[in-house]
Amino acid sequence: MSAHASTLTPPVSAGQVVFSATDIAKSFGPVAALSGVSIELRAGEVTALMGENGAGKSTLLKIITGDYQPDSGVLSLHGAETRFAEPRESRTSGIRVIAQEPEIIPHVSVAENIFVGLLGASGPVFRRRAVLEQAREALAEFGFAGVIAAETLGSELSAAQRQIVEIMRAVVDRPAVICFDEPTSSLGEEEVEILFRLIRRLRAEGIAIGYVSHRMNEIFQLADAITVLRDGKLVGTKRTEDTDHDDLVRMMVGRDLSQMFHREAIDPGDTVLELAGVSNEFVHDVSLTVAAGEVVGIAGLVGAGRSELLKTIVGDFRVESGTLSMGGTAVRFHTPADSIAAGIGFAPEERKAEALIMHRSVRDNIALAVLKRISRFSFVSSAREDELAEGYIKKLGIRTPSDRQLVKNLSGGNQQKVVLARWLSTTPRLLLLDEPTRGVDVGAKAEIYAIIDELAQQGVAVLVVSSELPEVLGLADRIYVMAGGRVTGVLPRANATEEAILALAMD
């Protein structure tokens, strides 16, 4: 064990229960978030926690971290009943939860972000040098040295690198229990493989691991056992070898979703969007078209320029050369407001940072793009705002106690539906979706796919960026593949395979 090893983990035998939550209940006002939920985390095993968004996974993790206290039920650590009044008590006891949305301090280095809260009281020069050296050693030990540098400022990190910093914070002192909450949602294939090697290594060292993910292939690669929640209740726990994909889906959603990727062939209408040789510092000589009623996918590896292309289309980044046309007319969007006025809706990848106002209500977030439409004499009509929000809450199945609920209190999948509701309310001609199902459970994915399909049938042009190859293959009528900011190929649905996409993505 390295110099970073902690004394928090007492000797345990493989398979021994390290942490358990038994018959946990938690309510928020009249809403029961958890009822009768139990889970066991065992030494040297990975236990997956699965369920639709809103099933109670996040609430359970916050009880484990001490952010919430259960209304009833028992928490046990190393066989002794315990209770965490605050997150510090959970961490001191040897429990770490790696959050899906990392909190990074922007103006300090990766090293200081990793060891935040653990820095000594020595002078700043000595401390900075010592912390940098410790971070370099830790990044090398855990396999991330080639992916992220200890000196890099937090403000300069990509989404994948921020997630790596969050992971490093948790593992450097080898706690007794580590829970991963959707850890691969921002990672590329290389980083995912490094993470999986790390998790297997931690498992071999006897650490009890919880793993929350909506990605079935990850669960079957990593998990020894799987606990499923539905509507805040425990459905059951199974050993991985005793279940399969279809069985887990039935446990999670209570219905068959085997056709959730299927879309009928379409006859596209007139071209809505056309790029001809569009270039800037992020993308180079990109040409593509999207027609009315067509779903066009953009695939590629992390860093290929896919998100940057969407931001170029909507005016976040300037078009330096080439032309962008809407409905056959060349346009130039100087700001995102210009693209909205032209009938474009854009749901970005980073929904919390770029799409939602987290401290405002569901109603406020849905109505944000159409305030003029629902106003009279410069005053927003509360009745029309209510009608709009309640209509989309019902249509999209947004799970919220009311439209006055703060959007920060919703699960990830329901937050994504709020983003979609905002743009659907504008009746867009073109909808740009960047990783629309990132961090979304299989049931909500099926619902989002149905929404996309319905929009296409209504004649909306849809451009989708997705890192999940089965998703882009199932949704798209055509797929543009990018690498290094360039389009390396275009695949019609009939010729598109995972192998063909990856070959072009690595061109």
TrEMBL record:
Classification lineage: Bacteria, Bacillati, Actinomycetota, Actinomycetes, Micrococcales
Protein's UniProt name: Sugar ABC transporter ATP-binding protein
SMART domains reported for this sequence: AAA
Location of the ABC transporter domain: 19-256, 266-507
Keyword presence, Magnesium: no
Keyword line: ATP-binding, Cell membrane, Membrane, Nucleotide-binding, Repeat, Sugar transport, Translocase, Transport
InterPro entries, A to Z: AAA+_ATPase, ABC_carbohydrate_import_ATPase, ABC_transporter-like_ATP-bd, ABC_transporter-like_CS, P-loop_NTPase
Gene3D superfamilies per the UniProt record, alphabetical: P-loop containing nucleotide triphosphate hydrolases (3.40.50.300)
Species this chain originates from: Mycetocola tolaasinivorans
GO molecular function, a single term: ATP binding
SUPFAM superfamilies: P-loop containing nucleoside triphosphate hydrolases (SSF52540)
CDD domains per UniProt: ABC_Carb_Monos_I (cd03216), ABC_Carb_Monos_II (cd03215)
